[in-house]
Task: structure prediction
Amino acid sequence: MPSQRPEEVAAYRINVNGIVQGVGYRPFVYNIANTLRLNGFVLNSGNGVLIEVEGRPEDCLRFIERLRVEKPPRAVVKTFSCVQITPRGYRGFRVEQTLSEEVETLCPPDVAVCNDCLNELFNPEDRRHLYPFINCINCGPRFTILEKLPYDRVNTSMKKFKMCSDCEKEYSEPSNRRFKAEPNACSRCGPTARLYHQGRPIRVENPISEAARLINRGFIVAVKGYGGFHLACDATSGSSVTELRRRKRRGNKPFAIMVKSVEEAERIVELNDSEKEWLTHYSAPIILAKKKEPNPVVEQVAPGMRYLGVFLPYTPIHHILMRNVDPPAIVLTSGNISEEPIVYRDSEAFEKFKDMADYILTYNRRIVNFADDSVGFVQDGRLRLLRRSRGFVPEPVEVEIKVDGVLAMGADLNNTFALAKKSRVFMSQYMGDLENMFIRKRYLEAIRNMQRLLNLKYSRIAHDLHPAYYSTQIGFSLEGEKTAVQHHYAHVLSAMAENSILGLDALGIAFDGTGYGEDGSLWGSEFIVVRRGEYVRRGHFKYVPMPGGEKAITEPARMAFSYLYDALGEDALKIEIGLSDNVKTVLKRMIDRRINTPMTCGLGRMFDAVSALLGICLTRTFEGEPAVMLEMAAGEVNGESYPFKIMGEEEYVVDTAPIIRSIVEDLENRTSVKTISRRFHETIAKITVELADTIRLEEGVDIIVLTGGVFQNRILSSRVKHLAEEHGLKTFFNNIVPTNDGGISLGQAVASSLMEEK
Ligand code: ZN
Ligand code: ZN
Ligand code: FE
Result:
């Protein structure tokens, strides 16, 4: 008998880490292994995807090569390691059960329904025709249904639905698009949608098209999405929108609108390529884009705004709804009473929406983790998120330093907290303002949930320097070694961390409302030089009194008086700012005697003051309103600005009095608000760059990092960037991490780790 030479066999063990679970990575590996006729297995382990392959050496190498260069659309490969091992004699290639050891892999964020699923959804021949919970390995809810890692059906709120035989077949067939698609379901076995009126279900064949019909008729309908409920109404109906504002007790804060398609969106707002890209991105954020005139969307949706927040349908429910509504856009705003957290539990919805929604469209799958919509705008082709939540969370921010074992509490407004492990900072979903008692309660719950969900532990707690912040006090009630981090330093580090420049020296410029300073006064126009783990304050705007403290924030006319008094003395009393002489005299006395009048250099307060001085916003109805409206009022900048003076040496101080005096002069000369506002914006941009340039010469730092809530202002951001680049300064902004206080948690986590390093 001729002896047959045994075929040469090689074997490898491969470990892939990153966002590789719940994104179709295992079927992808399976398909490549099968084409190359390799044996072995692939599985999700606590430490990424583990693969063993064996077969002809050249085929193994081809396999490794393909894994190195190819990946499924939403996977993010962070590390890839490969070792040669002894062949074990596997037969066939199998997808194995998940190993439940220490779970460390990342949880994917929620993904907008994909085009393949959409085609099936609207195909009358398909078995999932109009089934509102259609999903596949490439799309569907993730974070919002996940109880703990690994991302397997038993660990999600889909566990109560037992798959029918057809779904089961798809789920277990490695070449199927629904292989291991954890929320896989159909109308026979999965969740169902229901419409309610006054707490009772309405029997209709299609509750979603019925809800659409009700919106067409002017009703307000609560609709359950991925991360919570929305309130929906016709965005082209003045009476519906006004009624929604009244019921939500919402002042002038803009509502977002959902539009049917990008084409429809283009009829309502101007969109460039990157804006379109983000609108259609699988994270489906709300994008603030320039409103077209005339516009079918009524003014009451976003009063006085030049921008509209638009987004596209991202759940199958939204798609069915939008196909059935008549108007091109509907208001779709977080389901809550003003300042309260978003409602995401059904029981809560029935309670809270009793007087707010005429109808409730819900479904019987539990939302485990709430998540508001993310909101951003595009600047110079890059997304800048103002709220980082659904579609992004819980993807971590990778930083260049070790940030292990930290819980960062964040700040009180637009709160997010963060948990850090190794070099990853997991920022939480958007919480809201901790001044609200319900939000504080949810904040504590969310901290506990996220620890369990991602299996993260902490031994250190980073918090704001402000002793009176709720976030600080709550941090103190938890166990762990505490580190206080100055607010503006945290802002600067957040931008440096996400731009991966923590190792460089930089001039951080943080402009915001107010933050607690090292000297106990309120800072907010900081020029700080940051050198690995340390910062020096080199400049700021002049301090002015805040008569009435917090009250001066909600009544910007008070700030207008304060700036006027600083610039003009007694003459300030003569200037009309919507306050009676009596009130002005009281304010003057408060300032003179420093009664309940802290000092602040927060630039946000100066924007508030100018806004009130121009008669744009005398009392605010939402955070940032005076500054936003001042920006909206500005005409196209043309380089004109007001005189200013920079004083001091070691610590520079920008004197604001000449600016205020010039504005008053302009007002007396009946210069238009449009002109004054643009001159003011240009002035601040020039000051920023001139002072940055001065500090650069002394410190040898030519990188500037621009952060803080004031940089949500697009005119200021783009003018500063432009002027700085003319001076040869390199600029960095926040992008995926909010420039407002929503980014503070990242900066705190980094700051406390830098301190630890020393
Ligand atoms: Zn899909
Ligand atoms: Zn089924
Ligand atoms: Fe801030």
